Amino acid sequence: MPRAGGRTAELLSFAGLPDGKEHVAVVVAGARRGTPLVRLHSECLTGDVFGSARCDCGPQLEEALLAVADEGGAVLYLRQEGRGIGLYNKLDAYVLQDGGNDTFQANRLLGRGEDERDYTAAAAMLRAIGLPRIRLLTNNPDKARQLRDLGIDVAQTVPTGVYLTGENGRYLDAKARHAGHTLPLTNDLEASLL
Predict the structure, then answer these.
(1) Under DSSP, is residue 72 helix (H, G, I), strand (E, B) or coil?
(2) What's the confidence (pLDDT) of residue 121?
(3) Is 117 a catalytic residue?
(4) Nearest residue to 179 via CA among 105, 88, 101
(5) What domains are there in the chain, each with its CATH number?
(6) Helix locations, the chain, DSSP H
(7) Are 140 and 179 in contact (CB under 8 A)?
(8) What is the C-alpha separation between 191 and 174, in angstroms, rounded?
(9) By CB distance 3.0 to 4.6 Å, which of 26, 92, 139, 142 could disulfide with 181?
(10) Which of 39, 83, 112, 117 is labelled catalytic?
(11) Is 118 helix (H, G, I), strand (E, B) or coil?
């Protein structure tokens, strides 16, 4: 698959994964020698496709695609919309967030888990494409923990950028404070919460 910027990526689909979903991997042969860079990116229709500013998903996906094109590695695009609760529930959670709840509280109010994602399929995909040892592009410590528990050697965690908008400050704050994401709480973020 040709990509903007001149690098060609291989788009791989998978059948028979443990969760039965249709996940894909965007793989770029490495210009960098050593451990490949990998991003596990959970589907976000609102952010990835429609450019929603209420999350940081779209900018993180673009950052990952550019970094992998530059360094080599893979972006696994995982069909786990809304931290695994699905699109309809995510849209219902948005309504609850508009009422003052944070993203994790909203999921609980819907009777769902705060984060229902499972990376068993991602580990199977990494093994299938020959990437048992990776550098993981993420701010989410749970991704690295789950992959390690599933036998993937996460040699290094590489943080993504922080993509603050006027609409996502509370969301980023909840991810940092509640889920332990490595998002430095800057004066800009704290000011956006006031």
Answers:
(1) coil
(2) 96
(3) yes
(4) 105
(5) 10-80+117-164 (3.40.50.10990)
(6) 57-71, 87-98, 103-109, 120-128, 141-149, 169-179, 187-193
(7) yes
(8) 15
(9) 139
(10) 117
(11) coil
For residues 22 and 43, give the distance between their C-alpha atoms in angstroms, rounded to a whole number. 11
Residues in the chain: 194
**Residue in 48, 37, 72, 53 with CA at minimum distance from that of residue 192:** 53
CB 50 within 8 A of CB 77: no
Q: Which two tokens stand for residue 168?
A: 């996502």
What's the token pair of residue 125? 């995909």
pLDDT at 139 (0 to 100)? 87
Q: What is the mean pLDDT, run by run of 10 residues, along the chain of 194 residues?
A: 65 91 88 83 92 86 90 93 90 92 89 92 95 93 94 93 72 66 59 48
Amino acid (one-letter) located at 92: D
How much is the pLDDT for 149? 97
Marked catalytic residue, from 92, 115, 135, 173: 115
Which amino acid would we find at residue 35?
A: T
> Looking up tokens 């360094």, which residue turns up?
71
**Token output for 8:** 């060609």
Cα–Cα distances in angstroms (integers) from residue 66 to residues 4, 29, 47, 75, 175, in the given order = 9, 13, 17, 10, 24
Q: Write the CA distances from 44 to 104, 124, 133, integer angstroms.
A: 16, 22, 26
DSSP state of 192: H
CA atoms of 3 and 79, how far apart (whole Å): 21
